[in-house]
């Protein structure tokens, strides 16, 4: 028996909007600690990891760990039917091949049940080791989304370099080049307008803007984004979900051509 | 061709060893392709109307070039890194099979003449497809084309499938693409079918994993090879009356061909007088292949001038199309530098059991931050 009641239903809507274009089908894993998901895009270049901790739900009951395979597009269709102020409850019976989404209006005068078929998804689960990143950049999420959008009108890839001076986003395309530098800035009045750079080592990596732009669909979830970079690792773009958990996107970097060490 | 009835046998008895994959998911992977098989397919399919085929001004067939060019670009555009492997000298045992094919072709040629006289269009098409033969010229054309495209070409000492499997075993490539089930018998860890099918057919790629095949069939690799020989391979005849299903039963029961031979009813099953199964087994187990050190796989930039010269000037391809295609190769080359997540993170096994969710990725400092945010949450109702 599974019953998860989320007062702030819009949150789940936002989560779905941020991942449904990246991943088609995914397994949602429920345990006593929380509701989570790990899935890769079809080309295995990007990965999304979502965690909504049990404490964030108004009511959280999960008798035993279960994994529910869902088509995210279909799930998103159903969640779109929920109002922004609605309370969403996710329900599933043991051994059932369906999941139910219940939407309650804030005044309790309308209750809607949507039942969706589950599917068997044979997906690989990747072990993501703990790592010390060379550089961690925290910046306003809106600013990051703007930069990615702007740069993608010029080129296909972005080089993110972190130095003592700040973080530089640059691209190159047929019509020319673009560089955006954000400096460390902690003196603003509002904490969610700050740009904070922690750097152990300078780092410079190249990524496909297409994926970065897709990640920025999570912008409505959090006013700040954290970008963690290391030269030998995929970048992590993390959006905290207030009082509940996070959504993290991992993206494999582009590798220099004459690097013969790449795996087959 | 290949192993008779193996595909069906695996679909029935080892369904977990087969996976349908999207073409795109092979992004960034190095893949060894059995070239001869592909060229044969191109000659049959590409640009054929009745007995007419694509030709250049001199009347030489160019279907194989057209096919090789467009399909390879498709692979490159999807970010794959293909390596083409060509057949070398066939092993002596295969000569019998080749002679049979030759005579079948001769029959088909006669049938074709008959059909041409009667003018039956369906027959003309059917028999003219059967007369297709891949010549040395076709092979050489394709090698030249691939080299100009910057795609590595390997000439196997003997069987191309065996060489492909060896590349895959040593980890030089991720998978082997062929339509010939032999690749599994040669022990290619991952074997793909339908990778080279045209995109218009929308067939998913079939991925076979040899380790899963063995696990599901509950056989060792030696037993699997014996099974394939019993099913019927290119190297020797099979026993009349023993098909794939019976072969599997016999191998499961007796463990090896030797034991099977001792135990089966010789009245019912006629074992061929001259049945070189041991020799066939040896060819599958220790085929003649180049080892790693002798091979160098390098993907280079395309030679634009060379391609235009070869395809447009010599073989009458449309020059605009080739120029555009070369652009595509160049862009694709840029794209293939994208890394895959698997080269950084390794899969963990607990996929099927949905029990333990691990929070592997939480870093110490982030955990601290999480705790802070946790402190604010006090409303948990049970």
TrEMBL record, chain A:
SUPFAM superfamilies: DNA clamp. Belongs to the PCNA family. Residues 127-254 form the Proliferating cell nuclear antigen PCNA C-terminal domain. Keywords: DNA replication, DNA-binding, Nucleus. GO terms for biological process: leading strand elongation; mismatch repair; regulation of DNA replication; translesion synthesis. InterPro entries: DNA_clamp_sf, Pr_cel_nuc_antig, Pr_cel_nuc_antig_C, Pr_cel_nuc_antig_CS, Pr_cel_nuc_antig_N. Transmembrane segments: none annotated. Pfam families: PCNA_C, PCNA_N. It comes from the Eukaryota. This is DNA sliding clamp PCNA. PANTHER family: PROLIFERATING CELL NUCLEAR ANTIGEN. It is found in: Nucleus. This protein is an auxiliary protein of DNA polymerase delta and is involved in the control of eukaryotic DNA replication by increasing the polymerase's processibility during elongation of the leading strand. NCBIfam families: pcna (TIGR00590). One of its GO terms (molecular function) is DNA binding. GO terms for cellular component: PCNA complex.
From TrEMBL, chain B:
Residues 371-382 have a biased composition (Basic residues). Transmembrane segments: none annotated. Residues 1-108 form the XPG N-terminal domain. It holds the Pfam family XPG_I. Its main location: nucleus. Residues 356-370 have a biased composition (Basic and acidic residues). Residues 29-298 form the 5'-3' exonuclease domain. This is Flap endonuclease 1. Signal peptide: none annotated. The keyword Plastid does not apply. PANTHER family: FLAP ENDONUCLEASE 1 (PTHR11081:SF9), FLAP ENDONUCLEASE FAMILY MEMBER (PTHR11081). It is found in: Nucleus, Nucleolus; Nucleus, Nucleoplasm; Mitochondrion. Its cofactor is Mg(2+).
């Amino acid at each position: 028996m599974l019953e998860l009641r989320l007062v702030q239903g819009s949150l789940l809507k936002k989560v779905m909007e941020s991942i449904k274009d990246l991943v088609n089908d995914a397994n949602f894993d429920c345990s006593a600690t929380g509701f989570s998901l790990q899935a890769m895009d079809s080309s295995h270049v990007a990965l999304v990891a979502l965690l909504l901790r049990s404490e964030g739900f108004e009511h959280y009951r999960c008798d035993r760990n279960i994994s529910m395979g869902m088509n995210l597009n279909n799930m998103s269709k159903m969640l779109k039917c929920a109002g922004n102020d609605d309370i969403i409850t996710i329900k599933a019976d043991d051994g059932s091949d369906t999941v139910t989404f219940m939407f309650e209006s804030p005044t309790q005068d309308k209750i809607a049940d949507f039942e969706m078929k589950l599917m068997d998804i044979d997906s690989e689960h990747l072990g993501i080791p703990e790592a010390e990143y060379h550089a961690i950049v925290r910046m306003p999420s809106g600013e990051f989304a703007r930069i990615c959008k702007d740069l993608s009108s010029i080129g296909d890839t972005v080089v993110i370099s972190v130095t003592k001076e700040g973080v530089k986003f640059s691209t190159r395309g047929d019509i020319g080049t673009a560089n955006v530098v954000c400096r460390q800035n902690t003196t603003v009045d509002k904490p969610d307008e700050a740009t904070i750079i922690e750097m152990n080592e300078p780092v410079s990596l190249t990524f496909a803007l297409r994926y970065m732009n897709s990640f920025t669909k999570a912008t409505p979830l959090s006013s700040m984004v954290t970008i963690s970079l290391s030269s030998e690792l995929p970048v992590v773009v993390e959006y905290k979900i207030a009082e509940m958990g996070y959504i993290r996107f991992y993206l494999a970097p582009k590798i220099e051509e004459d690097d013969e060490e790449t795996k087959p | 061709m290949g192993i008779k009835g193996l595909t069906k046998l695996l679909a029935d008895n080892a369904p977990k060893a087969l996976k349908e994959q999207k073409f795109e998911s092979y992004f960034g992977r190095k893949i060894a392709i059995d070239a001869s098989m592909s060229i044969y397919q191109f000659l049959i399919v590409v640009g054929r109307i009745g007995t007419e085929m694509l030709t250049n001004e001199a009347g030489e067939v160019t279907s194989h070039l057209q096919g090789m060019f467009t399909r390879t670009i498709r692979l490159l555009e999807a970010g794959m890194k293909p390596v083409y492997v060509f057949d070398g000298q066939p092993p002596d045992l295969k000569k019998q099979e080749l002679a049979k094919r030759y005579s079948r072709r001769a029959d088909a040629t006669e049938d074709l003449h008959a059909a041409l006289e009667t003018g039956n269009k369906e027959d003309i098409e059917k028999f003219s497809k059967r007369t297709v033969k891949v010549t040395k010229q076709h092979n050489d054309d394709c090698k030249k084309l691939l080299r100009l495209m910057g795609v590595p070409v390997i000439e196997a000492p003997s069987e191309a499938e065996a060489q492909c499997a060896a590349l895959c075993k040593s980890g030089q490539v991720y998978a082997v693409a062929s339509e010939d089930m032999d690749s599994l018998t040669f022990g290619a860890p991952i074997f793909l079918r339908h990778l080279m099918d045209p995109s218009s057919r929308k067939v998913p790629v079939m991925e076979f994993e040899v380790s899963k095949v063995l696990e599901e069939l509950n056989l060792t690799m030696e037993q699997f090879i014996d099974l394939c020989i019993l099913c019927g391979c290119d190297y020797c005849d099979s026993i009349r009356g023993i098909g794939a299903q019976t072969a599997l039963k016999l191998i499961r029961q007796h463990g090896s061909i030797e034991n099977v031979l001792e135990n089966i009813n010789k009245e019912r099953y006629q074992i061929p007088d001259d049945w070189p199964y041991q020799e066939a087994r040896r060819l599958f187990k220790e085929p003649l292949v180049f080892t790693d050190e002798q091979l160098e796989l390098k993907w280079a930039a395309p030679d634009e001038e060379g391609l235009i010269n070869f395809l447009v000037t010599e073989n009458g391809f449309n020059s605009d199309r080739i120029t555009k295609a070369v652009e595509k190769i160049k862009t694709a080359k840029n794209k293939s530098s994208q890394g895959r997540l698997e080269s950084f993170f390794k899969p963990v096994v607990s996929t099927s059991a949905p029990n333990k969710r691990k929070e592997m990725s939480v870093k110490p400092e982030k955990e601290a931050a999480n705790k802070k945010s946790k402190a604010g949450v006090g409303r948990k109702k049970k």
